[in-house]
Structure prediction request, 199 residues.
Amino acid sequence: MKTRSPYAVAAAVAVVLAFAVGGVSTAAGGALTKGAVKKIAAKVVKKQAPSLSVAHAADAATLTGSTAAQLKTTGIKYVLPVQDAAQIREYSFPGLTSGTYLVSYSLSAVTSVAGTVLQCSVRPDTGTGAGAAAGYGAGNGFAFNRINASAIVTMTATSRLRCVSAGGTYTLNENESTVSLVPIDLPATRDALGVDLSP
Prediction:
């Protein structure tokens, strides 16, 4: 079965419209009207419709092979609980699936000793390993501390946010401390000059 290009049909319709705009006369001596052009165009399209095709129609429902459902990104936000004062605390992430995440946290805390530095980082396990997404806060002579930090981190079921007060103890302020995790594919790493540093 011969398939006519949609461009050919469009060209035919364009010619008809050009005649209409130019006021070309018909064989009977009358000019083509807007209504007549619409009828002719409708007939051309209707006649050609069974043989028309749209290239790559199957790809229209996907982006780079992924469906809309697969592209949907769902982030998770954990609200850190207010607990008794402590010098060191570790916060876990129940129900988190292992993977690479953009981890962002914001903590609001009060230390028992004014001006004390409160530092936090994401650790691969309880109290061990090098920290990622390290953040520091100091009250500058006050007991109030605010820490904000973010980083791309590979998380597992044992990953923890570990916070340590350099002196005395600390307590989080109610409903003001959260950790947000957004799953991502592992990105390419580049330096500030655009050089690819990926392994």
Summary: The helical segments are 6-22, 34-48, 68-71. The chain has three helices and eleven strands. The chain has a mean pLDDT of 78.
